[in-house]
Amino acid sequence: MQHYDIVIVGTGPAGLGAAFELQARRPQDSILILDKNEMSSGGLRNDCKMNFSWPIGFPETCWDEVTASYYLKRVEDFLQPAIMERKNIRTYVHRAEKIGVKLLEIRQSHLGTDGGIELIKQLTARLQAAGVAIALGETMKTMDASAKVITTDKREIHYTDLILAPGRSGFAFLQDMMNLCSIPYRDNIVDIGVRVETREERYPIVKDYYDPKFMFPKKTRTFCTNSRSAHVVQERYGDPETGYWYSVNGHAWSSSRPANGLVNFAMLKTVTLTAPLASGQAYARMLGMQASLLGGGRPIMQRIGDFRLGKRSFAESFTGDLYDFEPTLPSCTPGDIALSAPAKVLNALWNGIKLLDSIVPGLLHPSTILYYPEIKLYANKPVFIDQYFRVAEGLYLIGDGAGTSRGITAAWASGLRAADGILRERG
Ligand SMILES: Cc1cc2nc3c(=O)[nH]c(=O)nc-3n(C[C@H](O)[C@H](O)[C@H](O)COP(=O)(O)OP(=O)(O)OC[C@H]3O[C@@H](n4cnc5c(N)ncnc54)[C@H](O)[C@@H]3O)c2cc1C
Q1: DSSP string, 308-349
Q2: For 257-265, what is the mean pLDDT?
Q3: Protein residue with its CA nearest to atom 16 in ligand 1
């Protein structure tokens, strides 16, 4: 059986952050990083906008401002991002304040999907050149924590320290591993929302501030804004046995690609569940399945003009004279979101959209499209036994899947923090 001093599962920013740090500070250790995909599959390769300000991406259950800022500085020193300028936003800040909304001023960079793919290639090449073993297209299936062995679809591997960083797509896998290792966890928070798509001229703030972060009442916020060459996409969750469901998402190409004049962003509401249903994963799945049922196996899309009138959208709603742009995810089913989304969630989202239209007028144009559902599953909360995201001897859980981050830079920071823990143990 092969042995590595450190095995890292997941080549997203969390896994990469840990790998670079460990390689730089313990070059004598053998390190393997593996991924079930041929390339890191999360946000690094989808839009790749990075936020360098507290608290964006940092769950406050795991981070305080001082710790996050310390790690963010290390992330920034390593990645050397080109920070984008924010211009002319005072007016928006004042308008927001007057109606009880907060516009966070965040330092951001944006590479675009093509730029992100290029970055991943560069980073993996650097790791490889530094002697880190990289296994792509290899899936971890199970583990035996007492024997310190993981089993992949290709082999068994013995480790001294194991870092699991499987991201949001590995949410259920991580729960399986925690159950197997008797690691207590909670998973009671889920973000549910819609993705809004409109023409850039109806949401012109993006010309001055790439990803404006608005915080509304009722735990509702804007998230992941894309513009210039922006597209809505869908992600598939589930499996053949329990059934598949979809969440929408968005990304944009870099400024080197032709602009399509559209913008999209998520409007999300955070829902915290209490007993008897305390599984965000189970709740999200039910909502996803219900949307899929009503959408005939696809996400639902609805023009705001129809939504306001309480009418479902039909195929014609996307070709009428009032409707002056085509949806970028046309495979969605025109329908009625109100038949699928819980009333409390929908009220909060609609309230947020109306407030946003008072700050950036134009959004409520009838042609604006709402796509449903957009669900974020990153709220596994393992019980950590130290501040380095350790859950058992030689076992660390990091990144979005473990609830230690909600974005690229925080995920990278969580990798650094686990690496610090391993380095401390190894002396
Ligand atoms: C479409 C999309 C766009 C996004 N855009 C942005 C953005 O612009 N900015 C931002 O800050 N955040 C963005 N995010 C969120 C961002 O992707 C995450 O916060 C971040 O990538 C989390 O990093 P991670 O390392 O925890 O997980 P990931 O980046 O998801 O990486 C986890 C990796 O683990 C692998 N994996 C999972 N299970 C296994 C297994 N069993 N065996 C082997 N490998 C496995 C996966 O293939 C994946 O490559 C986006 C997310 C998506 C899905």
Answers
A1: HHT----GGGGTSTT--S--SSTTSEE--GGGTS-HHHHHHH
A2: 93
A3: 43
Tallying the residues shown for the chain, one arrives at: 427
Pair (119, 212) in one structural domain: no
Q: Are 409 and 51 in contact (CB under 8 A)?
A: yes
My answer on whether 196 and 181 are in the same domain is no
Q: Do 291 and 394 belong together in one domain? A: no
Residue at 95 is within a domain: no
31 lines ligand 1 (CB under 6 A): no
Domains contained in the chain, number? 2
Mean pLDDT of the chain: 93
Ligand 1 nearest atom to the CA of residue 211, by list position: 8
Contact 267, 191 (CB under 8 A): no
Please say if the pLDDT value at position 171 is more than 90: no
With 70 as the cut, is the pLDDT of residue 83 above it?
yes
Residue 172 belongs to domain with CATH number: 3.50.50.60
329 with 390, same domain: the answer is: no
Q: Whose CA is nearest to atom 49 of ligand 1?
A: 40
Domain residues for the domain of 272 are 189-376
CA–centroid distance, residue 182 to ligand 1 (Å): 25
pTM for the predicted model, two decimal places: 0.87
Measure 76 CA to ligand 1 centroid, in angstroms. Answer: 19
Band (71; pLDDT cuts 50, 70, 90): very high
Task: Give distance in angstroms: CA of 168 to centre of ligand 1.
Answer: 6
